[in-house]
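User: Can you fold this complex?
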Amino acid sequence: MTVTEGAAAVASKKQWLAATVREVIDETPRVRSLVLEVPGWSGHRAGQHVDVRLTAPDGYQAQRSYSIASAPAENTIMLTVEMLPDGEVSSYLAGEVRIGDRFELRGPIGGYFVWTSDLAGPLFLVAGGSGVVPLMAILRERASKKATQPATLLFSSRSYEDIIYRAELENLARDAGGPVVVHTLTRGAPAGWAGQTRRIDAAMLSETGFAPDRMPRIFVCGPTPLVESVARSLRDLGHSPKLIKTERFGPTGR
Amino acid sequence: MADVPISRGFRGRGSGARDARIPPGQHLVEDFPVLSAGPTPPADLANWRLSLDDGESPLAEWTWQQFLALPQTDLTVDIHCVTTWSKLDTHWKGVSIDTLLEAAGLTEPPQPYVLAHCDGGYTTNLPAEDLLDGKAMIAFEFGGEALDPEHGGPARLLVPHLYFWKSAKWVQKLQFVDPEIPGFWEENGYHIYGDPWREQRYDGD
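Assistant: Here's the predicted assembly.
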């Protein structure tokens, strides 16, 4: 524990920045990526998030947090948003939005659930559904920095059609030095599917992940029940809780 | 609001839905989302301890049974998470920090700041006065039932007038310190105080 006297005094307020939608990518029937031009955006670290604020013509505002999907870059970021039932902000971002639309962003936020290429140790990423978003930022950063730490993504999706970033993950996995990508489909797999079809459990984590003595850095993101169960299993398998970083979502996105 | 870009086609739930009890930038939820930085620690009531320290000096310590024997308080409060959800009229039972201080033989906090320490290594900092006069408790029941481990059970700090990361889950120790020592999220970009009504979300707000 370090004492950082006056740390709050030297920080400057994170300003709201205007973002303009430059590209809209349909990732799955319910999930969409938005490439945003954000003048003044100073970059971020993989795993961080932003606050998004929408303003209606009558001045009404709504604000939510979203993970950043892109690797660090200036003046542009990608968000990937899942449309939630009754989601006030997500139904706009994943439904209504068109190229040229504008809203505000503030960030980057969060200094804990982050990965930088100078961190030693294998990387084990465990995602459920749109929990893959901050983990994709990590894989994109790893690829862009040509980092050599071994990396594995274990990714649980409902169905084949629900796999977010499916093509890009296939491409990354094919690259020399690319990550190992293991999919599991929990609500039905297509004919001929050779991959996993059950919920992520201790056996799957043990088979796909790294041994605890290799001290992998583990990032888990997804719905609360998945994160709770995965983090518990990882701890029981002997991984240090200090190396297991979790981020949960669910009702918080509404 | 002069330069705020209007989001074409966004109507949202409309200004009519605003409730005077919802701080700026927050929205109402009916469920109880879970946010933690790492695994939920296993509850071990036999070895559970709650302690008060003055710097490095122990002031008092309670076992689970001793803690439950202290006078209890009910609180019905609104809670506000920095991730923008708010939940109204939540019911808690616990032991107020006033009661803990009294039980430790103290008439006032020995130092002006508190660093709360939790199972799993999480910490958060608060001014001691924010814990007094019935404003805060160590809560062990939520909604009339034992506090779920995901929500910080067996016991968590409850400081409802600040953003909810200050209401540290799985609390084990309140350490009185001077000067203030930033806790886990406070070291990771979040505001040192965290008043939802002043929207003090991040460092510098």
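The longest strand of chain A covers residues 17-28. Residues 26 and 32 of chain A are 5 Å apart (CA to CA).
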